[in-house]
Amino acid sequence: MKKVHIFLAEDNSADVWLIQEALRRQSLLFHLDHYLTAQDAINAVRVYGSNDSPVPDLLLLDYNLPGGQGSDVLIAAAANPKLAAVPKAILSSFLRPDEMSEAANMGALCFIPKPANLTEFLRDVGAKVTELLLQSGAISGKTTNA
Questions:
Q1: What is the tens place of the pLDDT at every residue in 38-56?
Q2: Is 94 part of a structural domain of the chain?
């Protein structure tokens, strides 16, 4: 089975663990590139596709990051033509309508809310990420952990 390559910009270590667990519960094989700050994430999206740096299958961005916002990362990603076809999603506990519009205008396909309830977080975040990967063709049907 194909291992998907997921770019994650998230500063909360507990949320990183929850996202990984949500993906495992979807039986996804995955490699996670994790960035803690907006600047680290921006630096990474600038070089994807160069020097044999593999392009991720999905960009998953927390909206509020130390040193910037997910929209800053979306702007940097838009400047890299190698990322044009890569789906991008904002993952956040709360966004104002103007922030959602801004993220959509910058290339985010969707907003994935971080549910406060653990069961809902694991179910809903995993299902939405799987849906995005299926829609993009990064996976076909369910992959299983081996």
A1: 999 999 999 998 888 889 9
A2: yes
